[in-house]
Structures are given as structure tokens and as C-alpha cells.
């Protein structure tokens, strides 16, 4: 069995043993655990992605809860190891939990936490940045400057797409998709078309109100449309951003056939999960359609890119940094720690995981609840009345 080489220990005499598979930003999450009698062990091993064996070694013989990462494979093996060690709680430091087999967690009675809300705006801002970077060819132009190729202004130099008055398409208009839609509609006066399994009523109201405001000021009003299929969005939108969860209904949602129906000069952005796009088909499409551009934060086989992608000028690629702002990452660590702590202490589950602000206020103690437990119903956990 692989032995973790280095562990940082806080509050060695704490009653409850909580393990974090990675160092996480900030210290509030550590302090909150220590204050509640936890011994906190942080794996500081210099290996980016821990294997299942590494994590089993970290769990050891006694472990009350684990804070883990989206790169780890939390399935039957790890939940049974955690359960054998007396553990009752695991939290991803992420909102997405496609790396977690929730049925396996249910089988062992382990609560699974995630970190919604605190990363919504940060992730949407990166999606907006990628939309702009791709539409206006910012990375290509930057490389050109640094290569000393700029001889002077030219009418045809790095001509890209104007966003104003065009249509932004959102697939998955949940927390992040709706925040992104609002940014693009309000910031760039784009019309909206979206596809989701559920109606995004607040988003629709926002666009309607903004359209009325523009009209009252003598400007062209923005509009919205809820599409009846994903294909409708792909066919009609000029900029499309993907924000659904990853599950079997969204795997390869964008593939050879769906790429073929998109506009030749469309911009496609993915800040959800890599496998939502068939990346091999995307590389081929980018090669065949040089005016089609993408902005990608996530990849099908992270940390790798499919062959050919890195050579394409019409692709902007960044390493899964959409939630990487200081405030957000510290908040994610706090929510993940409080998810685990809440279960250890027998606290109820927060009633609305879309409103986690009370847990993020540094000037007040957090509510005595777990902010977001995705299998709370399956485990029959009590819900907070606060
Ligand atoms: N790149 C990054 O760093 C980050 C990626 N994410 C990803 O973004 C995802 C969304 O996060 P939130 O907006 O907070 O979640 P959310 O649950 O609020 O939104 C997801 C939306 O997708 C919709 N959806 C589910 N299946 C669908 C389908 N087949 N077709 C269309 N829509 C469908 C849901 O109805 C929901 O409205 C996460 O699950 C995660 O995978 C989240 C944060 C950062
Ligand atoms: O939270 C998530 O799901 C991420 O991908 C990282 O923030």
C-alpha cells in the first residue's frame, strides 16, 4: 500500500480525526475544525492526483471524515475504507461531484458534501473571460505581440466577433449558467437563448426587466427564449457556454453531429466538465472551421488534451481554473470543512444549499449545520430550521 510521505498535523490532541487530501487556501477552515475539537491532518505529498491507494493510507484505521478533491475517485473502495475507519462524512472541495459514487456512499451511510454557490460568480466570470478571449482572439494576438510580429495597425489584423446584439446560448441554466447569462446579457447587450430541464424563471425576469430598461432609454431591447432542445441553442446562438452537471445525459452532449449544426463562426465555451464535449470531434471541427473558436477550462482526460488541440490557434485553453479566485477557493474550503464537521457533530443539513452566505461570514460563527449534503434525503438526515 502506498504510504503518504508527508502530513501536516493541527491540534494533535483533538477528539475527531479529519483528513484533507490536499492543502487548501486560507486558515478559517482549519480554525473552525480545531475549535470543534478536531485533529486536522493535511496531506502535503508532492503528487497532484492522489490514487485510491494513497487515500486509503491517509484514512488509516481511525478517521471521522475526509475533505477530498474532484480529481479523486471516490467509489466503493474508498467509502468502505472510510466506513471501516469509523468515518461518516466526506466532502468534495467542489460543487461538481461526478467523481463520487453517491450510491456507494449511501451503502456505507457516509454523507457526501459539495460546495455550491460560493463559486458561482467566479466561475461565470471565467466563462465570460473565455468568451471574450475567443471572440476577440486575445491569446493569438498576445502571442503575436510577444513574438515581435507587430509592424503596425492594419485593417484586417486579428478581426474577431462583436458580441453586442448577437445571441448568447446557455446550456444548463442553473446557478453558474444563469450568472453567466446575466453577465453576457447586461454586459454586452446580447439576446439570450437557453436550454435546461427546468425553467430559469429568475433569469427570464431579469432579461425582461433589462430589455424594458433599454427600450425606455431608446435602445434596442434584449430578448430571451427558452429552447425546447439543446439543438435549437446550438443552431441559433453565436456564443454558447456549457454549464450542466456531468452525468450520463450530458456526456458528449456536444459531438460531431451537434458541432455540424452550429454556426461556422460560433464561439463555444466549456467551464463545466470535459466529457460534456467529445474532444476528438471538437479538434477535427476546429481544424475544418478556422473561424469557429473555443474557450476551454476543462478537458475530457484531464490533465491531458486530445492530440492536436494545443496546436490550434482557434482554441483558448486554461487549466481548470474557473473557480480560482482567492475568496472563492477559501470559501470552498470552509464549506467543505463545515460539511464534514456538521456530520461529525450530528448537526442538521442546511435547508437551502443555494444560500450558503451565513457560512462564509468571517465575522460571525457559522450556523450549526452542514451547508450542503447531496445525499441527505437518501440518508434521512434532519434538515436545519434556522
Ligand atoms: N470549471 C470549473 O472550475 C467549475 C465547473 N463546475 C461545473 O459546473 C456544474 C454546474 O454547477 P452549478 O451551476 O453550481 O450547478 P446547478 O445544479 O445549479 O446547475 C446545473 C444545471 O444543469 C442542468 N442540467 C442537468 N442536466 C441537464 C441536461 N441534460 N441538459 C441541460 N441542462 C441540464 C440542471 O437542471 C441545472 O439547472 C458543476 O456540476 C460542475 O461540474 C462548477 C464550478 C467550477
Ligand atoms: O467546483 C467544481 O465543480 C470545480 O470544478 C472546481 O471549482
Automatic annotation (TrEMBL):
Belongs to the D-isomer specific 2-hydroxyacid dehydrogenase family. It holds the Pfam family 2-Hacid_dh. Residues 34-348 form the D-isomer specific 2-hydroxyacid dehydrogenase catalytic domain. Its EC number is 1.1.1.29. Coiled coil: none annotated. Transmembrane segments: none annotated. This is glycerate dehydrogenase.
